[in-house]
Amino acid sequence: MAEEQPLSKVVNDAARVIAGSNYVVALVGAGISVESGIPPFRGPGGLWTKHGEPPMDGYQRFLADPATWWAERLADSDSLSGLLQATESRKPNPAHHALAEMERTGLLQHVITQNIDNLHQEAGSRAVTEIHGNRLKLRCIACGACFAVEEFRVDEIPPRCPHCRGIVKTDIVMFGEPIPADALQSCEYHTRLCDCMLLVGTSAVVYPAAEFPIIALQQGASLVEVNPMETPLSELCRATLRAPAGEALPLLVERLREMKNERREERREESDGER
Ligand code: APR
């Protein structure tokens, strides 16, 4: 294992990689929302670590009896999964805001998030693909149409799509459910374009998301990791920021801002020198 380097040094290394890239994509996991009070799934304090992984056939159970699934969901909000309860009334933290600022300043082209908590959008990110869905949305399993939970009136069980009468479910991707085609296509599209992938708060063990960094590497892209713990991808990264995302990402944005000013200063001096 490489010797631990001071955070300021690796922040500088990471900033150089990102500033030298043309198409940066962030692959984000549960770790980014830990500082917003939402537990991760694995590792210390993880939901699955505490309660065990849920059954892998959640989607097949839903398809077998969607009416019961909905009746339970509507009758007793306590039946809401620990994850949904944990995401209620949570706010984005400095890590979410840092990614939104990187997007605004053109340093980040897209976010692929595995999180369903909607905190990227609440922090101002716009270029976001939610590979596992969004807790505030519903989706028709026939035509793929999406609806905001708060705007959708449930007047029959299971709810039906107003466009095609297909069955409507939460937009959150259940275990055993295929990733919706539009989301997968968007992830593959941005992954194929990237020359740098920023891995933030993901254990990188769940597929297909865990495949995107490998595809990026194979096409010559650089990987940069932000995670207090080592992951299976750490050794493949050009820089690893071993710190919580809420601490590391604002430092990274600050260093990128300084580098931009330094370059501007250099250019000004050069043009003054030519006069
Ligand atoms: N900042 C950055 N990373 C953190 C922080 C933090 N403050 N706290 C924890 N982490 C890291 C952990 O070290 C771990 O590597 O975040 C990672 C969280 O890993 P998981 O809990 O496995 O979450 P994720 O990678 O998003 O899981 C993928 O698995 O269960 C499914 O659908 C679920 O989307 C989820 C998918």
What this model shows, in words?
- With 275 residues, this protein is α/β, with parallel strands linked by helices.
- The chain has helices at 7-19, 47-51, 58-64, 66-75, 82-87, 94-104, 119-122, 181-193, 212-218, 245-274, and strands at 24-28, 110-113, 128-130, 137-140, 146-148, 168-170, 196-200, 222-226, 239-241.
- Helix 3 crosses helix 4 (66-75).
- The longest helix is centred in the C-terminal third of the chain and has 30 residues, at 245-274.
- The chain is elongated and about 75 Å long.
- It starts with 6 loop residues before the first helix and ends with a helix.
- The chain binds adenosine-5-diphosphoribose.
- Adenosine-5-diphosphoribose (APR) binds next to loops.
What is the secondary structure topology, with strand pairs?
Blueprint lengths: L6 H13 L4 E5 L18 H5 L6 H7 L1 H10 L6 H6 L6 H11 L5 E4 L5 H4 L5 E3 L6 E4 L5 E3 L19 E3 L10 H13 L2 E5 L11 H7 L3 E5 L12 E3 L3 H30 L1
Helix pairs in contact: 1-10, 3-4, 6-10, 8-9
The chain binds adenosine-5-diphosphoribose (APR).
Keywords:
single chain; 275 residues; alpha/beta; 6-stranded parallel beta sheet; 10 helices; 9 strands; 39% helix; elongated; binds adenosine-5-diphosphoribose
Query: Can you list the strand order of the major beta sheet?
Result: 3-2-1-7-8-9
Helix/strand class: alpha/beta
Helix-strand string = HEHHHHHEHEEEEHEHEEH
Number of strands: 9
Q: What's the overall average pLDDT, rounded? A: 93
Question: Shape, please?
Answer: elongated
Ligands bound here?
Answer: adenosine-5-diphosphoribose
Low confidence ranges = none
Tell me the Rg in angstroms: 21 Å
Provide the helix percentage: 25-40%
- What distance separates the N and C termini? 51 Å
**How many H/I helices?**
10
What does the main sheet amount to?
A: 6 strands, parallel
Strand proportion, as a percent range, falls in 5-15%
